[in-house]
Design brief:
With 167 residues, the protein is mainly beta. The chain has one domain: Lipocalin (Beta Barrel). Strands 1, 2, 3, 4, 5, 6, 7, 8, 9, 10 and 11 form an eleven-stranded antiparallel β-sheet that branches. Strand 4 and strand 5 form a beta hairpin. The longest helix is centred in the first third of the chain and has 6 residues.
Length: 167
């Protein structure tokens, strides 16, 4: 199946400290008021590309900018858990039924203004996010490589959206 080639987690980098690379220190400390309000589980709910693309192998030419709508339930099943102890877990394939290749990536996080920072796997990534007026969703933009049904890869600007889950 053709799919979007994107790593929303930002981290599948590892390092060996024997080669002189210094890994960033895990984020620590008490959460501030904004972070405390932000903490919780956030579910992936949208992925929109700037350009139309067809990633579904359904024998119909139906390109669209709503990449999320072209995903299977398992591809849509992504959740960030931002915990009060500053740890986070990024989980894939745990909510939808019968997903193969369940994954969990962990690290630490902080939110300063609109900058969400992750430290995991010997890497640090900061991303500008935009919170909704009600504070129940956030989005961010990224350049990603998208592989279409014809196996062509193109780079496109996309917007990821996550909504806070009610528990």
């Amino acid at each position: 199946m053709k799919s979007l080639m994107v790593m929303t987690t930002f981290f599948l980098v590892s390092c060996n400290t024997d080669d002189g690379i210094e890994c960033p220190v895990a984020l620590t400390g008490e959460l501030n008021a904004t972070e405390t309000e932000f903490s919780g589980s956030w579910e992936f709910t949208g992925l929109v590309a700037l350009e139309a693309v067809d990633i579904t192998d359904d024998n119909t030419a139906n390109p669209g900018t709503d990449i999320y709508a072209q995903y299977t339930e398992c591809q849509q099943d992504l959740v960030y858990d931002f915990m009060n102890n500053r740890n986070y877990a990024f989980k894939q394939g745990y909510l939808a039924d019968d997903c193969q290749g369940k994954q969990t990536l962990t690290g630490t996080w902080s939110l300063t203004g609109n900058v969400l920072t992750f430290v995991a796997n010997c890497a640090s990534q900061s991303t500008d996010i935009e919170m909704s007026d009600g504070g129940d969703s956030f989005s961010y933009e990224s350049l990603v490589n998208i592989r279409d049904v014809n196996n062509s890869v193109r780079t496109s600007k996309v917007t990821f959206t996550f909504e806070k889950m009610l528990l």
